[in-house]
Every structure is written in C-alpha cells, then in structure tokens.
C-alpha cells in the first residue's frame, strides 16, 4: 500500500493594483478636465513666448520709433500704438487667465472630482472594492496636484522671463509693477500655492456638501473668502522700510503700505487738505511726511511668507477632509 502524496500547487498571489488602477480610472474619467488643463497651459505658454519674442520686439520697435527711449521723450509716448496694444493685451489676458486657475481648480475639485462621485455613489462603490477611502481621497488629491505644480511652475518661469526682459518698456504700464495684485503672484511660488489651496478647499467642500453643484459653489465661495484676507495680509508679512522728508511727500517706489504727515512730536497723522491755504501745515503742526513701503528687494521674502501661509492653510484643509472622511466611513486614515 503506497501512501498517496498530495502536492498542492502554489497559489499565485495577485498583487494589488489599486493605485495604478485608480490612477488610470481617474485620468479616463476626468480626461476632459485634463485636456482643458493641457490646452490652457499650451495657450498661456504660447502667449507668453509670443510676448517674449515677436510681440515684444514689435512693441520695442514702436517704443523707440516714438522716441520714448530718448532721455527727453515726447508727447507721443503718452499714446499706445497698435503693436504696443497687442503686447499689453496679451500680457493682461494671460495674467487674468493665470489668476483664475485657483478658482477653476476649486470649482472642478468640489464639483466633478469629488462631489459628483459622492452624489452618484461611485465613491462608495470604489470603497467596497480594493481601494480604501483614505487611498481614494489621497489619489484624488495627489494626481491633480502632480499636474498643477509643473504647469504653474512653467507659467511662473515664462512670466518672469517676459517681465524681466522688458523693464524699460514696462514703465509705461502703470498697472504692471512687481507688487500689483495681478502680477505679484505670477512671478513667484504663490502662483503654485493658490491652486493647491483651491484643490484642498474644493475637496473639503465636496465632502461637507456631498452634492456636485452645491459643492462647486461652496468651493469657489470658500476659496474667495480665504484668498481675500490672505492677499490683504500680504503687505504685513515682512517689516516695511520707512522714508521721511521735510518738504514734499516721499517718492519711494514700491509697494506702499502707509503714508501720511509727521508732527513736531513725531506723531503720524493724515495729510491735511491745505489747498489754497497758506500756513496750513504750520497750523496743523506738520513738519514732515513719511511713507512705509516695500522695495523690490522684499519680493522674495513676501513671496515665501505668503506661500508658507497658503500651503499651511491648504494642509489644514486636507487634514480636516481626511478626518471628516474617516468619521463618516469608519476607515483608518
């Protein structure tokens, strides 16, 4: 009698392909948003390259032809020629598009990325498969962030290239100073931080509302309510420099934070309206003027401080989103 020996065939262990499968599912599901982002990047990069190349050259040619580059420019410099107008329009439209990226990101994240899946139940279906809620949310945030960061960095590098190459020509743009609200974010790391904040706020709004359209509106409104105080706080993020004069008001160039008059005691008071009133300044005990401002050398300290604050707020929003998801699903985050 021979003993029967049973040899069990080795069981093939199927490795989880959750992250890769979720990645491809996201790209396929949101391919329209992906193509929109690619086209926006291509359009903006093309516009900036045009402004840096032929657009800027044509504007320079007209600038010099009108005598604006001479030591004593004529009155013709007060008027914009066609090439100059095209150059100006391209820069202003490009800046407007780039400054809309955070709001567009928040709207998409709150509505289509997360809100629609929570409303339709596809998110709950994914959680019953091999993808945990935490990994699902992490992928929803990581994939768009990986696409937003290089795109916005490309915007920043090209915008800085254009902005730094045409300093003399740019002097005719009263609005195109380094500290202007439409220019300052695009020349530094803030341009990348705000879209990431929009992504985080959109995700949190979707998890709170769990319906696509209301979450879209809540995300845009929430981001706007965060951006306004953050932008208003910008001049206070770094110590200002102060210049004082005894005669006329100071002519310090930069981001003006505060200005006014000085009394004989050194107190700061508003500049009185002394038009047509001889001896008015003496009557008000005005002995000088002051101006608190940020010179251009403060650009990077202000950029880095604001970037740090924005990213900290974004991280807080992400943390709250994970905590909220954990509480509702009971899954370990």
UniProtKB/TrEMBL annotation:
Query: Which terms are listed as keywords in the entry?
Result: Membrane, Transmembrane, Transmembrane helix
| Top-rank taxon | Bacteria
Q: Which residue ranges does UniProt annotate as crossing the membrane? A: 34-53, 91-115, 136-163, 183-205, 212-231, 304-325
Name recorded for this polypeptide: ABC transporter
Origin species: Streptomyces regalis
Q: What is the lineage of its organism?
A: Bacteria, Bacillati, Actinomycetota, Actinomycetes, Kitasatosporales
